[in-house]
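Workshop exercise sheet. Pairs work together: one partner reads the sequence aloud, the other fills in the structure field after running the prediction. Swap roles for the next sheet.
Pair: D.N. / O.F.
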Amino acid sequence: AENQSSVLDLEFISSIRSLDQPGEEGVFLKELIAMFTKVTPPLIQGLVTAIHNEDFKAAQNIAHRLKGGSSNVGAVSLSGICSTIEKMAANKNLVNNIDFSSKLEQALLR
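Structure field:
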């Protein structure tokens, strides 16, 4: 069972590791994480700015991208936050924007 407070989905990480070729253990996961850590900080900054400016369309689009990207590396905490933001932005309801901004930054630091 998935723990809602988990930062990473360890079963998912294990399934990614199973995709490695013999003799290349961990290579695929490292490449995936390297790509994620390169593209994610600017997206989070863009999302924080969109939330602050109440730019609902931009917030929804960026949150959707981050949700997918974080899901692809098993970052369930970040994916969950982005899913909530995406839904709230779609409804033009980005209340507690400071709270979401800090949650995004905390999820990235973990």
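Discussion prompt: Helices lie at 10-17, 27-52, 56-72, 76-90, 97-109. What would you look at next?
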